[in-house]
Amino acid sequence: MSTGLQSVVGEGTVREISEGRDEPEWLLQRRLDALEALDDLDFPDVIRTPGRKWTDLADLEFESFVDPLTQAEDKEWETPDDVDVLPFHEAVASDEHDVEGAFGSVVDPETNYLTALSTALFTTGTVVYVPEGVDAEDVKIRTTMNSRSLFNYTLVVSEKSSSVTILERQETGEDVDGNRYYSGIVEVDAGENSFVQYGSLQDLSEETYNYQIKRATADTYATANFIDANVGSRLTKTSVEVSLDGDSSETKIVGAFYGHEDQHFDLDSRVWHNGEHTTADLVTRGVVDDHARSVYEGVQNVGRDAWDTSSYQRENTLMLSDESEADASPKLIINNHDTEASHSATVGQVDRQDLFYMTSRSVDEQTARNMLVEGFFVPVLEEIEVEELREDFQSRVRDRLDQRTA
Fold first, then answer.
1. pTM of whole model > 0.70?
2. Could you report the per-residue pLDDT of 60-71, keeping only the tens digit for each?
3. Alpha carbon distance 129, 69 (integer Å)
4. Which of 6, 45, 172, 323 would you call most buried, defined as having the most Cβ atoms within 10 angstroms of its Cβ?
5. How far apart are CA 211 and CA 312, in angstroms?
6. How many whole angstroms separate alpha carbon 242 and alpha carbon 92?
7. Which residues of 72-87 are buried (b: 16+ CB within 10 A; e: fewer)?
């Protein structure tokens, strides 16, 4: 276990969390199994680019901001009538949705040290269950963290020929002294011929260290899409992953971020093509300003039996200051010759010719720069099909640009 965490995390702590929520024995046992596994698990992989080792979370002093027994949050839900959206512990208490069978089936609790820690300590979460044949739109979840640390869990199960669009927001509410820690696990089980679109907007305070993993499995003819927008936190490490297990399954992973001051973003997009005739499209755009840093890693893994695969990836980062840093590491792993795939990544600054063109037509330099930044995001905004999320992200971009010019 990470040095120092033994003083705040132990079997007694896990049992107190579980007993306080009157959890069934199976869930307590999974918590204890995750706790026991901590000593043997590594922290999330560190991205390495030429001359640089990026985000090694093992270096963080988790004991200074992990406070498992004082977790507090406000949770809000807006849901249509024909889909079940329940607080996690209400869903566990019901036999209707087989939470026991779904829990940990997509994200293995022992994926790494931080997923196991989240499994052992989570106190809040949401279960979204979409029955067969139901089309559900506008499921909205808002999580407001009011404590030093918070461990949150979201489970989405879509039955055969159903569809759902989900927007989840994470933000901080009540102030606390010092740094904070937010951890989120999202599991999506997309059933046969179903459509799941999960969008998130992370706008945590800039004293918050943030780790999240969002993972989906897609059955035959299923679609599992993610939108991952990040503007908050001091440090974010997030991984968005889709396993295309069924034939003719598909995914689109859209990422957008804006870092300023001393923010640090470490973003992963991964897709596994396991079935035949699968399709993936990964697109990410971000901006870093001031002393902000970003790194992106995208992986398209085409399996031996994944015949007739189409897989595309593109990532672009715009640096607005000489002190900002950005890098990208797109990867293709192809084990099947019947594949059409491509990947690209660019890192650069505002185009001086574009800036000159606009200023020569009586647009002041800062306004011209802001317009170019907003225009830079247009290709990724066009990929965000959740209108409210698109508008929220645009609003936060404008807020950042207004701060820059103030």
1. yes
2. 999 889 999 999
3. 29
4. 172
5. 26
6. 25
7. ebeeeeebeeebbbbe
CA atoms of 242 and 251, how far apart (whole Å):
7
Q: In sequence order, what are the residues at sequence separation of 6 or more whose Cβ sits closer than 8 angstroms to the Cβ of residue 130?
A: 83, 84, 136, 156, 157, 158, 159, 162, 163, 164, 194, 196
Domain ranges of the chain: 5-351
Taking only the tens place, the pLDDT of each residue in 267-292 is: 999 999 999 999 999 999 999 999 99
Q: Kindly state the tokens that stand for 69.
A: 């027994």
DSSP bridge pairs for 217: 189, 243
Q: Are 83 and 129 in contact (CB under 8 A)?
A: yes
Q: Which of 377, 405, 371 is nearest to 390 (CA)?
A: 377
- Residues pairing with 345 in the sheet: 315
Angstrom distance (rounded) from CA 228 to CA 246: 23
Cα distances from 265 to residues 195, 202, 400, in angstroms, run 29, 12, 16
C-alpha dist (Å) from residue 140 to 115, 214, 370: 24, 17, 31
Query: How long a stretch of residues is the chain?
Result: 406
User: In the numeric block, which tokens belong to residue 286?
Assistant: 């971000």
How much of the chain is in helix, strand and coil states, percent to nearest 5? 25, 45, 35
